[in-house]
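Sat 14:20. Reprocessing the chain from the morning session after the first attempt stalled halfway. Input below, unchanged.
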Amino acid sequence: MAEHAIPRAHPKNTIVVSEGDRTDSLYIILEGRVKVFVAEETGKEVVLSVQGPGEYFGEMPLDQGPRSASVMTLEPCRFLVVPRESFRDFLVKNPSFAARLIEKLIHRVRALTENVKSLALMDVYGRIARLLLELAEERDGLRVIPERLTQQDIANRVGASREMVSRILKDLSAGGYISQTPTGLVIHKRPPARW
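Finished this time. Tokens:
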């Protein structure tokens, strides 16, 4: 695919693709991180995922429908952009990659189904607790969220107000469940089932 790809670089906070745009290419992330999100006209947004090097987005050019989400850089990024026809030809000639792509799409459908389920069935506290546990990585016996998240970042990911997130994080911190360090958030013990 690299033979037919066009290298592109974008600075931090650049919209790379917009929801509703014509789907014409696949983006492979070489450096940096992006957020995939949907937004209302009022500016309220929900973050669907954050992706980094080695991942890709825009893999839906096959159906030629409009883009289903927007993608914005969270830091300076470099991409390889593969035109739709080159991507289609590559899939036909490389069935093992096509199978991995199908597996990745299934994984994304499952993740989106879980997000819809939590939005419909969980309260804000439950969604925040779930997000924190999903983002945590085991490091030296501690569960750490290395990504620096603002309260607004968390609110955008769980579909809540920043004020509600602030209250819940304050309560979790006061209860000894989490603490903020210069390198990220630490989860000391599993948050309780109910707030």
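Helices lie at 84-93, 95-121, 124-135, 151-158, 162-174.
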